[in-house]
């Protein structure tokens, strides 16, 4: 059963270190970037988290998008700092950042091939408690990393409450970065506020030959049928896009309503737009902030979910050299007050920045 459809207030923090450029529509266009993905991430965390809530943080590799984005999901749901590091070393600047925020416990995301044990040992020498989450063989099968992350988040916000079944789940193809990246702020809000769970195709039985045990009746599927096959469905009778349901079909009381459906567009850019459009009906949240990232490669975008989570905004994608037309249309059609570019000019060019300023 789907629980907790009442929404919580969103904490709003200003990005004090950003210098805004005001467009014709009085929209602030800003950029956060460093010399690489690691410095970009630290700048984002410094802007968004003057302090570490509960002295907690999440750390993942900056070179493997799946575990990195699950790390972002966990951090955004818990509203704690999120850091990325090279596989085999941890920089002095990151260690200084961890020290300055008085972080006492870090969740490491990924196995030892993805993020080396030497990093874990270095943190332990500093007196930091480390918990590592990774795909693991248990109970006769592989348990995906999302299950372990999910337990921590759910117990933090919904301990002792009934979880529900597959109809409270959100499914994404986590082997492809664009849909996973775009969905992070949306799904992290949903587990925090409504107790959903989130995972990839390998987490559940999605084998069409095993029809009797095929997991179906999802609350949301994120991505088109090239990413999530058409035989995997949300609620019976749902059409593409959002579908409104009521617990009481006779009264149609809005307080007893909820949405399900496949959130997807014809490509990664349109899917990101469809996710952004879902904030108002599903989360009861109007968007006035959009984070713009490179839709063709992930490195600079890994920590973009942090800003989206703090600002209550959505992540939209663009080509590096030209503003995507679907992204552009969404920005023009909605009352977007803040546009934040994440990444350097190789990821999102100066030309795109100028296009955004001229909207």
Overview of the molecule:
By secondary structure, the chain is α/β, with parallel strands linked by helices. It has one domain. It is built from eleven helices and 16 strands. The strands form four sheets. It has a five-stranded mixed beta sheet with strand order 1-2-16-14-15, sandwiched between helices. Strand 14, helix 9 (304-311) and strand 15 (314-318) form a beta-alpha-beta unit. Helix 2 runs parallel beside helix 5 (145-158). It is globular, with a radius of gyration of 20 Å. 46% of the residues are buried.
List keywords for this structure.
359 residues, alpha/beta, five-stranded mixed β-sheet, 32% helix, globular
Provide a quick synopsis of the model.
The chain is α/β, with parallel strands linked by helices and 359 residues long. It has 11 helices and 16 strands.
Q: Provide the spatial order of strands within the biggest beta sheet.
A: 1-2-16-14-15
Helix content: 25-40%
Domain count: 1
| SS element count, helices | 11
Give me the strand/helix succession: EEHEHEHEHEEEHEHEEEEHHEHEHEH
State Rg. 20 Å
Question: What is the fold's blueprint, element by element?
Answer:
Blueprint: E1 21-22, E2 28-32, H1 37-48, E3 56-61, H2 65-78, E4 82-85, H3 92-100, E5 105-109, H4 117-125, E6 129-133, E7 136-138, E8 141-143, H5 145-158, E9 169-172, H6 177-194, E10 197-200, E11 220-222, E12 241-246, E13 257-263, H7 268-277, H8 279-283, E14 289-294, H9 304-311, E15 314-318, H10 325-333, E16 338-342, H11 350-357
Helix pairs in contact: 1-9, 2-5, 2-6, 2-9, 6-7, 6-9
């Amino acid at each position: 059963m789907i629980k907790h459809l009442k929404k919580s207030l969103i904490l709003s923090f200003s990005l004090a270190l950003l210098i805004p450029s005001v467009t014709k529509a009085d929209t602030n266009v800003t950029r956060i970037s460093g010399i690489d993905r690691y410095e970009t991430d630290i700048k984002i965390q410094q802007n968004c988290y003057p302090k570490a809530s509960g002295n907690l943080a999440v750390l993942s590799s900056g070179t493997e998008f799946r575990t990195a984005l699950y790390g972002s999901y966990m951090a955004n749901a818990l509203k704690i700092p999120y850091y990325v590091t090279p596989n085999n070393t941890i920089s002095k600047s990151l260690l200084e950042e961890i020290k300055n925020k008085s972080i006492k416990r870090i969740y490491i995301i990924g196995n030892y091939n993805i993020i080396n044990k030497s990093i874990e040992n270095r943190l332990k020498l500093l007196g930091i408690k480390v918990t590592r989450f990774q795909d693991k063989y248990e109970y006769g099968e592989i348990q995906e990393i999302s299950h372990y992350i999910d337990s921590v988040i759910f117990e933090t916000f919904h301990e002792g409450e009934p979880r529900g079944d597959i109809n409270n789940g959100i499914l994404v193809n986590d082997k492809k970065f664009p849909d996973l990246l775009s969905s992070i702020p949306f799904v992290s809000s949903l587990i925090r506020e409504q107790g959903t769970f989130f995972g990839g195709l390998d987490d559940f039985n999605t084998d069409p030959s095993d029809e009797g045990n095929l997991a179906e009746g999802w609350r949301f599927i994120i991505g088109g049928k090239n990413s999530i096959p058409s035989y995997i469905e949300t609620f019976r009778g749902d059409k593409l896009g959002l579908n409104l349901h009521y617990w009481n079909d006779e009264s149609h009381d809005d307080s007893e309503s909820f949405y399900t459906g496949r959130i997807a567009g014809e490509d990664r850019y349109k899917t990101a737009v469809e996710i952004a459009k879902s904030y108002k009906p599903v989360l009861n949240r109007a968007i006035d902030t959009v984070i713009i990232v490179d839709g063709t490669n992930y490195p600079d975008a890994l920590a973009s979910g942090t800003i989206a989570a703090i600002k209550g905004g959505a992540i939209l994608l663009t080509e590096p050299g030209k503003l995507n037309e679907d992204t552009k249309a969404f920005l023009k059609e909605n009352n977007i007050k803040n546009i934040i570019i994440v990444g350097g000019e190789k990821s999102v060019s100066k030309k795109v920045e100028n296009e955004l300023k001229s909207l």
